[in-house]
Amino acid sequence: MTTLIDQSTFTLNGVKINPDATREDWMAIHRDILLCKNAASKWLTQSRDFAIKRWGAEFTADTELQLELDLGLSIPTEKPTLNPADKTTAIVTIEGLSQKFTVWERKMSDDIGKWDRDRLERALELLTPMEATAARIRQLLA
């Protein structure tokens, strides 16, 4: 059986990463975090399903909320949607754009400096509207 939690690395208050950690060391730690995140989601679902079947949905929801409060966990607040209600299924959401851009930028950042002029101009053409919208939002926040 595999041990899920290395108690010398993971505590209730955080993760201890050796300042001299190599990329491989960090990757192993981060992989474990992602594995636990995925497993925790399944564990919570199975635990909730058990409690709902045994004691009902209201008891389960009330108890989970109380446990989160007792543990000092932040209760997730609903984030406002940034797309009109009638178009959210027909267009890509701004959250989706951000996630896709983050992945793209992470994979391409080292290559951008090697692009020829045509690729640079095309990228600039595609990114300029986003930059202009970000500038407009910054003005509204000022």
Structure, described:
The protein is an all-alpha fold and 142 residues long. It has two domains: 62 residues, no CATH class; 48 residues, no CATH class. It has four helices and two strands; from the N terminus they run ββαααα. The chain has a two-stranded antiparallel ribbon with strand order 1-2. Helix 1 crosses helix 2. The chain starts with 9 loop residues before the first strand and ends with a helix.
Q: Tally the beta strands.
A: 2
**Spatial strand arrangement across the major sheet:** 1-2
Terminus-to-terminus distance: 55 Å
Measured by DSSP, the beta-strand proportion falls in under 5%
**C-alpha Rg (nearest Å):** 22 Å
Structural class: mainly alpha
Taken together, the total number of domains comes to: 2
> How helix-rich are the residues, as a percent range?
55-70%
Order of helices and strands: EEHHHH
| Overall form | extended
The largest β sheet comes out as: 2 strands, antiparallel
Average pLDDT figure: 84
Unreliable stretches, pLDDT < 50, 5 or more residues? none
Total count of helical runs of at least 4 residues: 4
